[in-house]
Amino acid sequence: MEAWRRILADSIVKPKDLAERLGVDAKEIEAIVGDYPMRITPAVMATIKKKGDAIWKQVVPDIAEMDDFEAEDDPLEEDLMSPVPHLVHRYPDRVLLMVTNQCPIYCRFCTRKRLVGKPGFLKKGELDQAIAYLREHTEVRDVILSGGDPLLLPDHLLERILKALRTIPHLELIRLGSRVPGTLPERITPELCAIVKKYHPIYMNLHFNHPDELTPEVKTACGMLADAGVPLGAQTVLLKGVNDDPEIMKRLMHQLLLARIKPYYLYQADLTKGTNHFRTMVETGLNIIKSLQGHTSGMAVPHFVIDAPGGGGKIPLLPGDYMVHMDEDGAVLRNYENKTFHYPQPKAGGGHELPMVGTRSSDDGSAEAFASCGDSYPDRDGYAAWGNSCGGDVDEL
Ligand code: SF4
To answer: Which of 86, 236, 340, 360 is 20 to 30 Å apart from 99, CA to CA?
Structure first.
């Protein structure tokens, strides 16, 4: 047996073992795990520092999961958008393919609580059905392998899937959504990296919610994937008591970049049954974005999105005060320092006049009387403003 499988087998799955390790009430845990299974890998167990901390909350079953009567099992209506088993086709050119329902840990806030960790998932022939659907649907250029966690599949099965997908000529991108590098880093082996390298372009969206998850072992695992040519992105779920704090979130984003992972999405928690106790106000996420935007490098700012209930898909949200006003003359914009700027619209007829950009304090809230300067002049910090050039923005210097 491969080493990572032995390590996974050492995970905590039984209430009595959890009670011994963490001093919880085994009977209470028993009442939850029948509906919503538990698994905590040794790597994750080692990062729990005290009762109720950010890691504990994500993996230790909470009786609040059983008090959530009104929410739906499937608020995103994935099951209704599934033309063949385990494949969700919601957006025009991309699909989600759930290749397993096994995960290294069972996150207590998971959107797919209805599926993960339960017996009997992928039946014989279902994978072939999904591949046949993709072959027929030439509009699909991007497939996201998810679950559960595709990196829990054995190497030979993962390779079989990747190989089959690469026989579909119109399929350009393969993405994998995974929590494995952050929770079972031993799974990232040279053999796995060698497989992945054969089927590029492969992207991975990893899942991290708290800076304490970025241990040296986890960073090494992520580095192996990056060295194998896999662009790494991170998805983060905004969770009450875990990361609903601007300072924690900033530390997380910085740690991700150090691990060669680009922060990608910050999700507002879904309305999934059994997860209501993790939900925050929408303003919490907006304030976090405001605390990052302009205050740290743009690379560290994820897109804040709500996956709309009822199958509406991801809707991006930005704090409302960046755009003060816009009309046919131009846009009045507010920056991270609460200063306002005017960006003129191009004149009808497509002239090449220089945009007039000016600054003033927003104290009086008015959008008039801007000091003007060309966009090649130094801005208030003394840096040249390069606009949309490939040289990057000033905040990335
Ligand atoms: S690893 Fe992902 S799919 Fe699995 S339980 Fe956690 S959030 Fe859900």
So the answer is: 236
Rounded CA gap, 254 and 107, in Å? Answer: 23
Give me 2's structure tokens: 């491969």
Phi, psi of 67 (to 5 degrees): -100, 5
Expressed in angstroms and rounded, the spacing between residue 267 Cα and the centre of ligand 1 is 14
Other CB atoms closer than 10 Å to residue 41's CB: what's the count? 26
Which positions ≥6 away from 69 have C-beta within 8 Å? none
Beta carbons within 8 Å of 114's beta carbon, 6+ residues apart: 73, 74, 272, 273
Closest atom of ligand 1 to CA, residue 147: 3
- Four-CA torsion 7, 183, 154, 74, nearest 10 degrees: 130
Q: Are strands 330-334 and 323-326 parallel, antiparallel or unpaired?
A: antiparallel
Calculate the CA 158 to chain-centre distance: 22
Distance between CA 305 and CA 241 in Å, rounded?
19
Looking at ligand 1, which atom is closest to the CA of residue 146? 3
pTM of the prediction? 0.87
39 included as an active-site residue: no
Within the chain, which residue ranges are assigned CATH 3.20.20.70?
79-315
Class of domain 79-315: alpha beta
Distance from residue 84's CA to the centre of ligand 1 (Å) = 22
What tens-digit pLDDT sequence spans the chain (397 residues)? Answer: 899 999 999 999 999 999 999 999 999 999 999 999 999 999 999 999 999 999 999 999 999 999 987 788 888 888 888 999 999 999 999 999 999 999 999 999 999 998 899 877 788 899 999 999 999 999 999 999 998 999 999 999 999 999 999 999 999 999 999 999 999 999 999 999 999 999 999 999 999 999 999 999 999 999 999 999 999 999 999 999 999 999 999 999 999 999 999 999 999 999 999 999 999 999 999 999 999 999 999 999 999 999 998 888 999 999 988 999 999 999 999 999 999 999 999 987 655 555 555 444 444 444 333 333 334 333 333 333 334 445 433 333 3
Distance 27 CA to ligand 1 centre (A): 24
Is 112 one of the annotated active-site residues of the chain?
Answer: yes
Tokens matching residue 195: 């497989």
